[in-house]
Design goal:
- Pfam families: Transgly, Transpeptidase.
- GO terms for molecular function: carboxypeptidase activity.
- This protein has about 750 residues and is of the alpha+beta class.
- The chain has helices at about 15-35, 45-55, 100-110, 120-130, 140-155, 170-190, 190-200, 210-220, 230-235, 250-265, 270-280, 300-310, 320-330, 340-355, 425-430, 490-495, 500-510, 515-520, 550-560, 595-610, 690-700, 715; strands at about 70-75, 80-85, 205, 210, 335, 360-370, 375-380, 440, 490, 565, 570-575, 580-585, 590, 630-635, 640-650, 655-660, 670-675, 675-680.
- Among the domains are: about 15-55, no CATH class; about 85-280, Biosynthetic peptidoglycan transglycosylase-like (Penicillin binding protein transpeptidase fold), CATH 1.10.3810.10.
- The protein has 22 helices and 18 strands.
- Helix 3 (about 100-110) runs parallel beside helix 9, helix 5 (about 140-155) crosses helix 7 (about 190-200) and helix 15 packs across helix 20.
- The chain is elongated and about 100 Å long.
- About 50% of the residues are buried.
Length: about 750
């Protein structure tokens, strides 16, 4: 049975309306008294109690800049990627279309320029409407701005559960606090400042906060260029972004847009003809999807990810990880990097041409740095950051250390065995002791037994031996070269040019191993997985057994190009926050690492690698005789699954790599077909070589290809010292404890294919 209405109090009757009016007036009177009238001027317990409550409410609101998008830029200012927690780009009021300002005021707060933060007329209207069973809002734009500022601060602090939404979890006390703050805000800021703040903070869509982001997302335009129908649609969207979404609910969006237009013409903000044309315009969007994060970078996703790791690991951006994330993803930073987009495009084309979406997922990467500054110029690899069908999908950066790459919990790579690209550092130690590179040594020695008397002034003992006869005691097999015809006497420089393993060991036997260690450390070479030094007293490291990253190797070789001065690699040139203030970036940091005359001697020898040694087989050929001065070293590890060319001109150093980038990197690089070509065993000159050659030919001239300084004559043609005595072929004493058995990757015996 229906409940009957008392006709005396029915709001449809004249008497009912009078009672309703009196009741609403009383409520409004209490609110207005509490908000606007000093306590001493009011009597009555109800009003007095309300005023005391208002007096305890805060009247100050900290209006911090709302969360803004961070931009990572290339060296020329082009955008690499945008990062954000809320997609927002702040713009000033004069950078907004007049239509959007008028539309928002017309539909949300028509008396915006008349009230002082709280619209009592609106409150009266809303209460009457609510009493009649119809819901109607009463919040002014100022009140909405207050609510958005409070919620934005809570979101930034990670307190999303405390966010207050109108009609959902906002109580009377919350509403009264909002009113008081709105009044206080109106005393502190102008109407234009409040309107600008509101339009920059308000939520339009999950991918669009603020009018600039909304304009780009829905219409692929700017806030300044919004048309009248577009502005009216966005103004109507604020009330319910999902219900009035023009993409999913175009009919609702048109109805709401036309209501906004009706309000605008009624309030005299547009003419009738403008209104007629606007309502006749169909609802059409031109969506520019918001692509947040490095994964969506079309230029350099892996370099972007490297930059992001640098920021998130830097205490200057926050005391802990959460604070640093807030700074980076909400701070509206502008991060200018060292990346050259032109060089990057060439690098990307090369790695994709070498080994794009190969079904067996062999990896290719290329990274280059600028000698003298350490600036990273390019960083590319042949994988897709975002999963794509038929592509080699991988989030791990092949070019950097494990700590600097995403996916460490998935088994981040942390580099590859550098193979023979480590040989120039033993050669540098030979020159550092004042010895001539034309000294002839015995390259036929293949056995270095456990009791071999290496010279070593470092506290770390020598680890390892090469002597098949002592395998049961922990030694590796006798040293091997790629070609049988190179077990012979030859000069030290010929041994390096042709990448002969036995000559590298003969060279090391003639110097202090500790001298090699000091050069390797000074040139910044370290283990890519642990960031620990590479121990050169571990004999397998003379020919590249410990994984190092391509960026590490490029930076180390840049030391030779820079006359012996090593510069730490840097990626971030400058960082500014939303206010334009400078934040800590990376500055060039260099140190003397190798004697200039030694660096010049190495540069001379590495030119010979390309002219007549293992690098002369690279196709297309690149050498100092046919193009510009350039030096490089090929590298291949024992199972042929990590192949390199690392080299430099006077202005650019580059590491080019090809090999196994999966899991434990244990697939041998043999009997594989790539781009229709069969390889019995891949070598540094075969795939990594053309990557290097093509890239350097196109990019290096922009960075300088001056002749290298001449190597001192005493290091090239000086008197040859007496060759080191040939070691015995068998141990004469039993060691007290056998050396550890090297792992399969620690049994190098394969040199790069020498020039026949």
């Amino acid at each position: 049975m229906a409940t009957g209405k008392n006709p005396l109090f029915d709001t449809a009757t004249t008497l009912g309306k009078i009672f309703l009016f009196l009741g609403v007036s009383a409520i409004c009177g209490v609110l207005v008294a509490g908000l606007l009238v000093p306590a001493a001027a009011v009597t009555g317990s109800s009003a007095s109690g309300s005023i005391k409550f208002f007096e305890t409410l805060p009247a100050e609101l900290q209006v911090d800049p709302p969360s803004q998008s961070t931009s990572i830029l290339a060296s020329d200012g082009s955008v690499i990627a945008n990062l954000y927690a809320e997609n927002r780009t702040r713009v000033s009021l004069d950078q907004m279309s007049p239509y959007i300002k008028d539309a928002v005021i017309a539909i949300e707060d028509s008396r915006f320029y008349e009230h002082g933060g709280v619209d009592t007329t609106g409150i009266m209207r809303a209460l009457v409407s609510t009493a009649r069973g119809n819901r109607q809002g009463a919040s002014t734009i100022t009140q909405q701005y207050v609510n958005n500022v409070i919620n934005s601060s809570l979101e930034a602090e990670g307190k999303s559960d405390q966010v207050l939404l109108n009609g959902v979890n906002k109580g009377v006390g919350d509403k009264l606090r909002e009113m008081k703050l709105a009044i206080a805000l109106e005393k502190k800021f102008t109407k234009e400042q409040i309107l600008e703040g509101y339009l920059n903070i308000v939520f339009f869509n999950r991918d669009a906060y603020g009018i600039e982001a909304a304009s780009k997302f829905f219409f692929s335009t700017t806030a300044k260029d919004l048309t009248l129908p577009q502005a009216a649609l966005l103004a109507g969207l604020v009330n319910s972004p999902s219900f009035f979404d023009p993409i999913n609910n175009p009919e609702n969006a048109k109805e709401r847009r036309d209501l906004v237009l009706q309000s605008m013409v009624t309030q005299g903000k547009i003419q009738q003809a403008e209104y007629d044309a606007a309502v006749a315009t169909p609802v059409e969007t031109k969506v520019t999807p918001a692509r947040q994060g490095c994964a969506y970078s079309t230029t350099a996703p892996y370099f972007c990810d490297y930059v992001l790791h640098l920021l998130l690991n830097n205490p200057a951006y926050g005391a802990d990880a959460k604070e640093r994330e807030r700074t980076v993803f909400r701070g509206g930073l502008t991060i200018k990097t060292t990346l050259d987009p032109n060089a990057q495009a060439v690098a990307q084309a090369q790695v994709e041409g070498s080994a794009g979406a190969n079904p067996d997922k062999w990896g290719a990467s290329l990274v280059s740095v600028q000698p003298g500054s350490g600036k990273i110029i390019s960083m590319a690899q042949n994988t897709q950051f975002l999963e794509a069908e038929g592509k080699f999908n991988n989030v791990i950066n092949f070019n950097v250390d494990m700590r600097d790459a995403q996916g460490n919990d998935l088994g981040g790579l942390g580099g590859f065995q550098p193979g023979s690209t480590m040989k120039p550092f033993t050669f540098a130690a030979w020159l550092n002791e004042g010895k001539s590179m034309n000294t002839v040594l015995n390259g036929s020695v293949r056995r270095y037994p456990l009791n071999y008397r290496w010279k070593n002034t470092c506290p770390t003992p020598v680890d390892g031996a090469y002597n098949t006869a002592e395998k049961r005691l922990g030694a590796a097999d006798d040293l091997q070269n790629a070609e049988e015809g190179y077990y012979k006497n030859m000069s030290v420089v010929d041994g390096l040019a042709n990448s002969i393993n036995t000559m590298t060991f003969a060279t090391a036997a003639g110097v202090d191993l500790c001298g090699i260690q000091k050069i390797v450390d000074a040139a910044g070479i370290h283990a890519g997985q642990t960031n620990e030094p590479v121990p050169m007293t571990r004999l397998s490291n003379l020919i590249g057994a410990t994984q190092t990253s391509p960026l590490t190797m490029a930076s180390a070789f840049a030391t030779f190009a820079n006359d012996g001065t090593y510069c730490e690699p840097i990626a971030i040139e400058s960082v500014t926050d939303a206010s334009g203030a400078q934040l800590p970036a990376q500055a060039t940091s260099c140190r003397d690492a190798i004697k200039p005359e030694v660096a010049r001697g190495v540069s001379f020898a590495l030119q010979e690698v390309l002219n007549r040694g293992s690098g002369s087989l690279i196709k297309p050929r690149i050498s100092t005789r046919t193009s510009f001065p350039i030096a490089a070293k090929t590298g291949t590890n024992d199972p042929n699954n990590s192949t390199w060319v690392v080299g430099f001109t006077s202005g650019l150093a580059t590491a080019s790599w090809f090999g196994d980038a999966l899991g434990g990197q244990d697939r041998p690089g043999r009997n594989l077909t790539l781009n229709g070509q069969f390889y019995k065993a891949i070598d540094g000159y075969m795939i990594a070589g053309p990557q290097f050659s093509n890239y350097m030919t196109q990019v290096a001239p922009a960075y300088g290809t001056d002749p290298f300084p001449a190597a001192p004559s005493n290091l090239v043609n000086g008197p040859a010292p007496t060759p080191a005595p040939r070691p015995t072929t068998q141990s004469t004493t039993e060691p007290t404890s056998p050396a550890p058995e090297p792992t399969s990757s620690d049994k190098p015996g394969n040199s790069d294919k020498p020039n026949p």
